Amino acid sequence: MPTRQPPPIKIPKFKGEHYPNVYLKWEQNIDQIFNIRDISDQKQVDLVVLESEEYAMTCMASNQGPPTASWVNIKILMCARFVPSYFRR
């Protein structure tokens, strides 16, 4: 009996809307997908960069120091960009 291939990983696109709740909902959806599937850190980064229309890459490039290489670090940078500090409280 042939083994079944898992369906391809589809994550929602993020277009960089400047509404904090839109970003936070997108982040939550991505976290749920990554928690359900066993996805390597590099694959997580690749998927997020691919589906965020370069916003994740821009956030990574604007960071001082070496490039960010994890979804956790990308979330920190993107949250700082798309969620104002007063909204995070």
Model description:
This protein is mainly α and 89 residues long. The protein has a domain at 40-88. It is 58% helix and 0% strand. The protein contains 5 helices and no strands. Helix 3 (55-62) packs across helix 4 (71-82). The mean pLDDT is 81.
Oligomeric category? single chain
Average pLDDT over all residues = 81
**What is the helix fraction of residues, given as a range?**
55-70%
Cα radius of gyration in angstroms: 14 Å
- Beta fraction of the residues? under 5%
Number of helices: 5
| DSSP strand count | 0
The stretches of 5 or more residues where confidence is low (pLDDT under 50) are none
Question: Could you list some keywords that capture this structure?
Answer:
89 residues; mainly alpha; 5 helices; 0% strand; elongated
Topology of this protein?
Blueprint: H1 20-36, H2 41-51, H3 55-62, H4 71-82, H5 85-88
Summarize the structure.
The protein is an all-alpha fold and 89 residues long. 58% of the residues lie in helices and 0% in strands. The protein contains 5 helices and no strands.
